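Morning!

This is the sequence you dropped in the shared folder:
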Amino acid sequence: MRSRRGNAGKIARPVRPDPVTPEELAVAAPDVFIAPNGVHLLQIPAWDDLPWLWHGFSTRKGGVSRAYCADGTPGELDLGFTDADDRDLVAANRRLLAESVTGDPTTQLITVRQFHSNLVVFPRGTNVQRKRSPKASGVASDIFATHVCKGDGLITAQPGLLLAIQTADCIPVLVADRKQRVVAAFHAGWRGTVQRIVESGVGRMRLEFGSKPGDLIAAIGPGIGACCYAIGEEVLSAFESQFIYGRELIREVYDTDQVRTKYPMLFLTQRAPGHSSIGPNLHLDLIEANRRQLLDAGVPPRAIHAVGGCTSCRPDLFFSHRASRGHAGRMMSVIGIRPR
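The structure's back. Tokens below.
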């Protein structure tokens, strides 16, 4: 029905931001910390004030794996047990990562079988499967500890564990409770983000450990940026249906092909508007989507840190499933509580 007050009864649709180029959306990669053992890490300087807290976001640099690097180049820090890589080399990389973060290569590293959900598990160090590498040379097998559950989030208050989320474009989110000393790690691809993995995960911290949102700090690690993350109608519909601000997360991005820019007349088409393959693509800002979830969960804006860097833009620094067309290693984002 029309409103008696003219246009007042019409449903207001959000205004799309002006189209941009990928370069306008690109976010510079942060400074890299090089650990004494050679591992290249990203960390949050503001978290240095919490001596009890372990954390770090790995890059692809500083390891011994060779499955995804060119001949004659240094080994890489692939941390995923993929079919393309040698398990013993990946295990060695995991020990290097643990050592770079905690100072001890045998620190128990806990992972889950990720499947793009909003499922959160609570490892306590005793309910894990342990595997020994035949080339571990007597090193404790804790580095292979894998939680028996599937999930995309980990929460613990137990010291001595290093929670780990694997990514190669998806968004890793680390959360810590400064007062209760509880830590969490979440894997947020587009499906997990739509299912509110981060927002519900913070809710589980409140329910299980009594965490207060005002006491939480959060770090959003490197993932594919809005500059590179082109999406289709399925993803667009999912975000618009689940979030009132869903359209604000979408940008129209024009191709910056130099030939198209210099000779636009060569690419004219007689197709009706919206039916041509030429034009802007829809890009999703997953980093902003998860920042909004942290805000909705009550985390103070000043307590949320975005590390920066696009995994697809920087294949020299990060593994990217999309940029490498599926042939990619895995990075890890880790967080833990230092034993007293």
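Headline: Residues 1-15, 129-143, 272-276 have pLDDT under 50 and may be disordered.

More detail when I'm at my desk.
O.
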